[in-house]
Q: What sequence folds into this?
């Protein structure tokens, strides 16, 4: 084994990154922590309240509901986007002119900014002028996302699927393309069925990219703000008020900086825990693989 | 530089000072005994000292949150439990 030279001076090279992260993330986060234990009436005057905001928040129905909506939204879109992404990636061609066509088509929704996607769907789903809403109404379907919570949820979920399934598709496709032909040839010789090829070759080889896709989609959906805000504004009522929307309402709408800071920290901790779990699982899969020599 | 806009309080400053001291301690520990002391504990995956500190801090945050959510006793008990939890993490994880 080659002995690596240890040179701690290299850490100084990381210093600029540390300063940027401190400026853009650590200091703001510290400020949020400071806000979460105080109350303010503006004019930069703060009053110590201790853990009261956290206690209030953890017992508030409004927070429970927003949290439940956020978790439900992430769970629903993951349950749809991941299998759908795999199916589309499996159906995509591996050779010929179809490859660039499919790849570009898949990449298009990803290039559209969030607020534009929200606006597109806000108009598209309207019963009076939108193609989707008008068509559904003409077919006799009782659909109005501005009044019916179920319709609002369906609209936001379909919008998210439209916007982000492509990401899962592209990641899965990259995973599938990395499988050497020898695996398929061996499967053919063994007379493996299409399902067996998927179960024993394609799915294990896609495991890492799938975990990345799940992590990315989870994080993105758990922090979703712009699209539902543009489409429904959190309504009808509070039916699509996710944690992110509620947080902005509390912090900027009501100027309740203390409770909003407490909510941000709980929100942050949930994301941190889940990301750590995903990261640990991902790293361990990689480790086991390298040990197994696969 | 004026940091009054950050609305500092003594308890939060102490909190961050402790975290900072923990990081410095770990850095010194790493310089003295390099390698991070990786091992496979009860969680069945490899953890280094840094991982164990992270697990301790994250766990401590959750212990406090659950304490506030379900119990009305003093928060200092949660801190005590979090410290015991951190010791357990450093010993067994």
A:
């Amino acid at each position: 084994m080659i002995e690596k030279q240890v040179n701690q001076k290299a850490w100084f090279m990381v210093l600029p990154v540390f300063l940027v992260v401190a400026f853009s993330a650590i200091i703001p986060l510290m400020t949020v922590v400071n806000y979460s234990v105080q109350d303010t009436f503006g004019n930069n005057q703060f009053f110590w309240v201790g853990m009261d905001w956290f206690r209030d928040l953890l017992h508030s129905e409004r927070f429970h509901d927003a949290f439940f909506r956020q978790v439900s939204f992430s769970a629903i879109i993951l349950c749809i986007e991941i299998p759908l992404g795999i199916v589309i990636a499996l159906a995509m061609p591996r050779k010929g002119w179809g490859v660039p066509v499919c790849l570009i088509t898949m990449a298009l929704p990803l290039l559209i900014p969030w607020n534009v996607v929200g606006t597109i769907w806000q108009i598209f789903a309207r019963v009076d002028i939108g193609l989707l809403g008008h068509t559904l109404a003409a077919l006799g379907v009782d659909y109005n996302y501005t009044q019916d919570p179920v319709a609002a949820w369906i609209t936001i979920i379909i919008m998210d699927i439209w916007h982000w399934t492509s990401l899962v598709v592209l990641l899965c496709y990259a995973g599938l393309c990395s499988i050497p032909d020898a695996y398929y040839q061996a499967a053919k010789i063994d007379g493996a069925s299409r399902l067996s090829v998927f179960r024993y070759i394609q799915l294990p080889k896609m495991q890492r990219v799938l975990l990345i896709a799940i992590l990315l989609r989870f994080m993105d959906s758990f922090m979703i703000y712009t699209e539902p805000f543009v489409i429904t504004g959190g309504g009808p009522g509070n039916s699509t008020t996710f944690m992110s929307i509620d947080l902005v309402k509390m912090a900027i709408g009501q100027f309740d900086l203390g409770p909003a800071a407490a909510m941000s920290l709980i929100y942050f901790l949930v994301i941190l825990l889940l990301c750590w779990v995903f990261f640990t699982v991902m790293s361990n899969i990689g480790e086991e693989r390298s040990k197994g020599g696969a | 530089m004026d940091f009054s806009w950050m609305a500092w309080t003594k308890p939060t400053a102490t909190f961050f000072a402790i975290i900072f001291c923990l990081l410095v301690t770990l850095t010194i520990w790493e310089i003295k005994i390099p390698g991070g002391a990786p091992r496979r504990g009860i969680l069945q995956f490899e953890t280094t000292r840094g991982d164990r500190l992270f697990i301790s801090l994250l766990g401590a945050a959750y212990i406090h949150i659950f304490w506030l959510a379900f119990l009305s006793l003093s928060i200092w008990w949660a801190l005590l439990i979090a410290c015991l939890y951190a010791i357990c993490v450093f010993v067994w994880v």
About this structure: Chain A has a mean pLDDT of 88. The longest strand of chain A covers residues 38-40. Residues 65-292 of chain A form a domain with the MetI-like fold fold (CATH 1.10.3720.10).
